[in-house]
Amino acid sequence: MGGYHRGETAAQERAGFARQAGQARGAIGNTVPDVAVAFLAQQPHVVAGATDERGRIWATQLTGEPGFLTVPGPHTLRIGVLPPPEDPLAALLTGAGAGSGPGSEPVPIGLIGIEPATRRRMRMNGRAVRDGDGLRVELDQVISNCPKYIQKRDHHPSEATPLPRKAVDSTELSPGQQRMLRAADTFFVATASDQGDADASHRGGNPGFVQVLSPRLLRWPDYAGNAMFLTLGNLELNPAAGLFVPGWDTGTSLHLTGSARTVWDEEEAARTPGAQRLVEFEITAVREVASASPLRWSVPAYSRFNPPTAA
User: Fold this and answer.
1) pLDDT at residue 160 in the model
2) Which pTM does this prediction carry?
3) Residue 93 and residue 51: Cα distance in Å, rounded?
4) Which of 254, 257, 48 minimizes the C-alpha distance to 134?
5) Most buried one in 105, 278, 293, 310, CB count within 10 A?
6) Angle of CA points 300, 305, 311, to nearest 5°
């Protein structure tokens, strides 16, 4: 998995970035650099994406005290927690690689460690198995990413008495969830290739960059990035996708799963400031988990790279 698959090269060529993508290939490795070992050890959260037992892709967040992410070997990441029962990936990851039958094989997983306070992030893709009270991930890809479109935030533990987690499922967005998305400046998207290899990525912009076209249809701009087209490349081969939208000030997690497609029409993209392309996402299932995260985050300082949003 050190190179690009055919979906990624197809997206790169269609976008006219094949040469730049070739130059960016050097940022893809399969070992964790020493500086990244220290970075991961400081983080209280990591975002993960995977495909559940029904073939649906979900993105989620795992949290723990700093030090819960460790690198016991250059090709291995250990995550010292498991998702709680309310998490849409709980059953999959809790049973990953355990015993025989369903869940006995390692689970393809995409990960992104992100530190909003310093606008640093790194992606890791591999295969997870249950390891006691956590997960062990054998890494296929370790990718350095640029700081564009990350909103600066500092975190602190919630000072309120923890409330029980509560999950609410639906097949479309409620009015409150629509408002949350229209106000969002950040979300995470999980995709997978046609071979099942998973990836998790970050998307950011000024509030309003996520367009809610209907209770089951979203659209967002694809801004200039690192020219790798890992997310759009997966979508060339497999339209399944999952979104995780963090409630920075509430600890609520909004999880969406469905299918996505890239809108390559230049005239259509030109109607959205900064967009080089558009992505449309059709929702098939929604899970909102109250009190999902113990972390609370400060008011953001928006990235200077964020294009303006349409009036």
Assistant:
1) 75
2) 0.96
3) 10
4) 48
5) 293
6) 80
